[in-house]
Amino acid sequence: MGPSRTSHRKSREGCTPLHRRAPKCPEQRPRCSNCIRLDRTCTWPEAVALKRVASEGQSRRDRETPSASHCAATTDTSSRHQGDTDELPLQDLRLLHHYVSKTSSVLDECSDPQILKIWQDTVVQIAFEYPFLLHGILAISALHLAHEYPAERESFLLQSFRHLEPSLRVVKSSIAKPADAATPALFACACLLVIHSFGVGALEKPQDPIGSILGIVQLIRGVSAVLRSSWDTVHGVQLSALEPLVAGGLSSGVPGHVAQITALKQQVASLSQFDIPFAERSACLEALDHLEAVVLKAKARSEEKQESALAILFSWPVIVSEEFMPLVAQRRQVPLAIMAHFVIRLGVIGQCWWLQGCNTRLTNQVERMLCERLRVFLVCPTDDVEIAATVQAGSKPHQGR
């Protein structure tokens, strides 16, 4: 019987050159003795080895926890980015912390402590039950960070849009099926999406600013219509301070007049049937009446610091007639000019970070579409608001001409 063969451990982690030639590698790093003897470059398959070790470790954990696959299958679809398991949760925690500590306090200019508490605390508590609202919170937080840190803008915008998509999908679906949609979470999320639409416009150039503002108005009107009839039964006490946003109007009328809007109404009223059809002219005059009431209330808000800037934003799109918005969508000149004037007024009224520069691109686009005499609508308004007890807000000064 011949001498027994010397036993040795089978190598699976040897260097690449010796794996090609099949001999055993002594696995001496950084350069094994065989490669030194043969004067070869000694390289090691680090990535492959590490990947196999990780794979074997995962397989072992899967065997130890048979329910792991079931848990993964029942996870919310928003966790499809789970591949970055060490990174994404930390990103989201950072976004949530930023929202609670900073963003929630600058969403609105209103000094009412009830409204501040709603955005900082109540909405977050609701979001833990409604993932789509949590996505909305994280989206607006990332957008706020993009405004605050321009050097990291692209990174924060990517995070923001990643959370925006699932949130927007649920809200649009809820508007399409209103019977199952009337929840405080829907309305809170819609507010955040409106803010997001304005805020992102200051960072990225929309190809069609008119279409963008129409999308915002459509969202406001759709959510308001869904919730208005059932608000009393769904809001409880959670969001009662935000009821003016749903009610379709401002909390109260303010007597007075706005000189520039009054002049605009006079100009529209003087247009002939050839310039503008009668039905269109009536819709435009009514829209200007409502806009004047909103501006008067906004002026009072700047003194009282109680009316929500969001309430100002939500009021006019909700109370204008059904006939007016399609005219804007058709790019009719007078309705388009009125819409642009609303956005200009909004930029003057609101000093929120998400309103900064909201009117510039829209007015640039609209200006190219208007005739010379209608460009007066695009003049940035001065302090032309006069609050007076003798003139009732919402009056019809054009009637009787």
Description of the molecule:
- The protein has three domains: 13-42; 88-235, no CATH class; 257-386.
- Helices cover 59% and strands 1% of the residues.
- It has 18 helices and two strands.
- It has a two-stranded antiparallel sheet.
- The longest helix is centred in the C-terminal third of the chain and has 27 residues, at 278-304.
- The model is unreliable at 46-88 and 388-401 (pLDDT under 50).
Reconstruct the topology from this structure.
Blueprint: H1 16-21, H2 33-38, H3 46-64, H4 68-73, H5 88-101, H6 113-127, H7 131-148, H8 153-176, H9 184-201, H10 209-228, H11 231-234, H12 243-247, E1 257-258, H13 259-269, H14 278-304, H15 309-319, H16 324-329, H17 333-349, H18 360-367, E2 385-386
Antiparallel strand pairs: 1-2
Gyration radius from CA atoms, angstroms: 31 Å
Helix fraction bin: 55-70%
Gap from first CA to last CA: 125 Å
Low-confidence stretches: 46-88, 388-401
What structural class do you assign from the helix and strand content? mainly alpha
Helix count, DSSP H or I runs of 4 or more residues:
18
Shape: elongated
**Which strand order spans the largest sheet, edge to edge or round the barrel?**
1-2
Share in β-strands: under 5%
> Mean pLDDT score, rounded?
74
User: Mind describing the biggest β-sheet?
Assistant: 2 strands, antiparallel
Question: What's the number of extended β-strand segments?
Answer: 2
**Total tally of structural domains:** 3
Element-by-element helix/strand order:
HHHHHHHHHHHHEHHHHHHE
Biased composition (Basic residues): 1-11
Region (Disordered): 1-30, 53-85
Organism: Rhinocladiella mackenziei CBS 650.93
Protein name: Zn(2)-C6 fungal-type domain-containing protein
